[in-house]
Structure formats: structure tokens, C-alpha cells
Amino acid sequence: MHQPHAMTTTTRRSPIRVRRPGRASLALLAAASLFGAARAAPAAAWAPTRPVTLVVPYNPGGGTDATARAVASRLAVLWKQPVLVENLGGADGLIGTRRVIEAAPDGYTLLFQVPSILLMKYQRSLKGIDPVARLTPVTAVATSPTAIVVTATLPFKTLPDLVAYCRSKPCNAGSGENSSKVRAQKFAADYQLPNLAVVNYRGTAPIVGDLVSGNLTMAFTGITAAIPLHKSGRLRVLVTNGRDRAHALPEVPTSMEAGWADSYSVTWYGMFAPQGTPPAVAQAIADAVREAGKDPHVREALATAGAEPAFTSPAAFTAMVRDDDARLGALVKRFPLED
Hints:
The chain has ten helices and ten strands. By secondary structure, it is an alpha/beta fold.
């Protein structure tokens, strides 16, 4: 008997077809690949491709001008573009400030200012317009204490001596911008000197000239222009108004040490751009300024001006401006500005 043959079952499989991508699909894949690469690669930081103007809204010769020029010279090297310092003094800094407010928000026109900008909105002629609200804070550059500077021809060497002298004889005080006017008025109120005449000047240089010649008793100002004359004996920095003694004048007491409470007043030098400047541009400028501040010549210039480096981010400078705005606003309520 024959054995039956084993039955075998053959299963036929359908051939697997590999679909090749068409031209449209290849284009999409290429685009996605390029998009991913673009996201992975960091964007290049903004840098100017033509000259930049740095407006200083005060006359040459003061601390604001000296600090601005030191930073501008190094920025020109880093950017490989000229950085032109343009002095536009007048109207307590308003003329130069307005020049930047009205400029294009593209990083090519910048403003170098001090805390007096915060008091402009209290001037009657501005009718409440706030210049800071129309600007973008970019970075602080340096800080420097304000000071009471007196003519060296007068016999006193301490703050109590100055007060006693002005209670017995007519005295006058020079101020070059709004914040110094307010400080002079506060000094007169705190020490009950109702006859102290506050004389307004356009810039620091003429104040120093009248102090040296004896036409002024004292001045409420920054220490930049006074340092060399203090060291030569032609002027005397009586007190500085920081919380600690100024590095440039360690022998000079602070006003709080001398007995004037609530006298803190430190000037910051800061850079602003027109409102609407892209955040990336503002950050790139702040980064460049910080890099410029590493240069020994910039550090030396700041030290000579009696200033200390204080390079910040745009956010940190915005917070600094906001804090000073509250402090100075409270003062100007007590001592209103007059146009």
C-alpha cells in the first residue's frame, strides 16, 4: 500500500512595494531639515553697519560727557564703526533727550542720561509728558555719588561749619540740572536756611568757574569736575552723598557721616534708545557696552571721573530707573520745579 503523500500548503505573499518619495515630498523633507538647522543655530547678535550717534544732552566738560566719551571710544573699536558723541545741551537736558525720542528705533541713535531725566515730567512746560515712557532703558554704565563742593577761599572744612556760616551770612548754591536743584532745596529745608539762593547753570563747567572765583558759596553737583581742583586745593569737596565713601575720595566723609540724614544721592550714567527698539537690539547694545567696560582705558576713565562701573541688562536698568523715579518723585512733591 502506498503511503499517501503529505499535503503541503504553499502561501503566496503579496510583494511589498516600496514607494519612492515624489518630488513634492523631497522638497518638504529638505525644507524641514533646513528649518531644524536654522532653529539649532543661534542667531547672530545685532551690530551696527554704519556710524552710531550717542547724544549727551549736556554741555562738554562734566561727568556725563566724560563717561560717555570713554565708552563711545571703545564701542567704536568693538563695532568697527564710528560712535559719534553729540553734545546737545539746554533746557535741563530736554533738547538732547527729545532728539533721541524722535529718532528711528533702530539702535543707531542712543541717549546718555542721568537721573534728572526722571524729573522732566514735572516741568510745567512739558504738561506731564514723561520722556522716559518714550524711551527704552538699555544699560547702566556707571554710578557716581553727588557731592557738596565749596570754594576753598572760605574757612570751613566740615558740613556743620558750612551750615553755621550760612545761618550768619548770605550764601548761594549752584545747580546744573533738576536733580541738583531739588537736593539744594532739600538741604535748605533740612537745615532751616530759607535765604539760601539756588542759582541755576547750564552745565558743570560754569559752576566750577564761579566756585573757583568765589562767586558761589557751594554747589550740588557730581564729583567729576571737582576731583582735580579738590586735590590741588582750589576747591573743597565737603561731603559725598553715597552710602559709602567714594573710592576716588576716600578721605572725604559722606553726608550721612557728617550728620545730614536721608541725604543719599548717587548719579547713574545710563544709556537709552528710542521707544520701540527691538529687545534683541537693546540687549546687543548692553552686551557691547559691558564688553567695552572691560577695557583698561575705559576703567581708568571712569575712575578719573570718580565713577564706578555698573554695567547692567536692560531689565536691571529698567528696575534701577523705576526705583529712582519713586525716590525723586517724592522729593519733587516737596520741592516743585519751576520752569
